[in-house]
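Thread amino acids onto this structure.
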């Protein structure tokens, strides 16, 4: 008997973040007051759902829901290009697609630079609310969150999606993204938010905006997670997956990927 699909009419979205960087000063510049847009009122780029907003020290953008990989790639690259050429270049700035960076203390005096958002996220493995360790007051981080929209979403299916995302995206992100500082604050295993249209996976960093190959990898991994859930896939080693992601354990990541026959993405260079 064919497995009944839990996820139908899927769309994917994202609200990635990036840093502004001054090559002249050789340091990151907080976005505060330079671009505009807020969580409540993003600054539209088009009438189709492309927009930007300031989020603490980082610049965040959003794209309309995507039905296929072509839409995913074109929407993300359209906004990246717009930000680079139309927003940052006139200000003498360039984008920096990295997971975390330290700012000069003198650049963090604006109250907006200490804003970290207030909407809670939760752990899909134990149901607990995620906590943030602000050990380094100068460190700021970025995320590349993936939003799943589908017909008749429910909490149980959302949890399955997020756990599968940890398997197909979170585990391998340990091998691809060499920045371990962010995971002390954000991006731990199973980080998610329930949404009225579905669910948001929050474990990946803004580093995955840095190349077309990585942007495509995120899409492919998200689709594999959905396929895994729709096929009734079972995760047999949940604790290993959590330990791998939370401790940035590359050796364990390779073991898990081998166990599930997941191909490792090869990059010419790593960050």
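Threaded sequence (271 positions):
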């Amino acid at each position: 008997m064919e497995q009944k699909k839990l996820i139908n009419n899927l769309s994917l979205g994202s609200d990635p973040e990036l840093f502004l960087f001054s090559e002249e000063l050789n340091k990151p510049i907080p976005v505060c007051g330079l671009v505009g847009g807020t969580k409540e009122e993003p600054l539209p780029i088009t009438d189709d759902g492309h927009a930007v907003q300031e989020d603490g020290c980082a610049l965040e953008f959003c794209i309309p829901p995507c039905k296929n990989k072509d839409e995913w790639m074109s929407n993300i690259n359209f906004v990246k290009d717009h930000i680079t050429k139309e927003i940052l270049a006139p200000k003498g700035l360039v984008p920096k697609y990295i997971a975390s960076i330290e700012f000069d203390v003198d650049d963090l005096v604006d109250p907006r630079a200490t804003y970290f958002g207030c909407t809670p996220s939760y752990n899909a493995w134990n149901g607990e609310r995620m906590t943030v360790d602000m050990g380094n007051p100068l460190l700021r981080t970025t995320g590349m969150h993936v939003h799943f929209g589908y017909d008749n979403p429910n909490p149980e299916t959302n949890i399955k999606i997020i756990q599968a995302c940890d398997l197909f995206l979170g585990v391998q992100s340990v091998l691809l993204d060499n920045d371990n500082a962010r995971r002390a604050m954000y991006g731990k295993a199973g980080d998610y938010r329930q949404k009225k249209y579905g669910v948001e996976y929050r474990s990946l960093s803004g580093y995955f905006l840095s190349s077309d190959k990585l942007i495509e990898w995120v899409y492919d991994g998200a689709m594999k997670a959905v396929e895994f859930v729709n096929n009734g896939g079972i995760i047999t080693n949940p604790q290993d997956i959590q330990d791998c992601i939370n401790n940035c354990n590359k050796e364990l990541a390779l073991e898990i990927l081998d166990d599930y026959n997941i191909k490792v993405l090869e990059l010419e260079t790593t960050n």
